[in-house]
Amino acid sequence: MRKNLHVAMEAYVTKILIDPSTKRAYGVEFIRDGETLRVHANKEVIVSGGAINSPQLLMLSGIGPREHLSEHGIPVIQDL
């Protein structure tokens, strides 16, 4: 495994942390062993949840159709 890559086993990512002013991802929020944790990325966040989970994760993070996000009380970072 690469030195600059960290993989958290048995963790469920719930949100990509995004700076609303720059629209740049800076980390992720996840649940592991019933505890909600946050980690910050030094360089980049890689989304690899597949055809179903990647769009879901982006929408939970505020990236998606404004109407749909607003209906669920999710602050809109980027309307698509």
From TrEMBL:
Q: Name one Pfam family in it.
A: GMC_oxred_N
Gene3D superfamilies in the cross-refs: FAD/NAD(P)-binding domain
Tell me which domain of life the UniProt entry assigns to the organism this sequence originates from: Eukaryota
User: What start-end ranges are recorded for coiled-coil regions in this protein?
Assistant: none
Please name the InterPro entries in this protein's record: FAD/NAD-bd_sf, GMC_OxRdtase, GMC_OxRdtase_N
One example of the protein's molecular function in GO is: oxidoreductase activity, acting on CH-OH group of donors
**Glucose-methanol-choline oxidoreductase N-terminal domain mapped to chain residues:** 50-64
Similarity comment text for this entry: Belongs to the GMC oxidoreductase family.
Q: Which PANTHER family match?
A: GLUCOSE DEHYDROGENASE [FAD, QUINONE]-LIKE PROTEIN, GLUCOSE-METHANOL-CHOLINE GMC OXIDOREDUCTASE
This chain belongs to the protein called: Uncharacterized GMC-type oxidoreductase Mb1310-like
Question: What organism is this sequence from?
Answer: Bombus impatiens
Species lineage, top-down? Eukaryota, Metazoa, Ecdysozoa, Arthropoda, Hexapoda
Q: Which gene encodes it?
A: LOC105682036
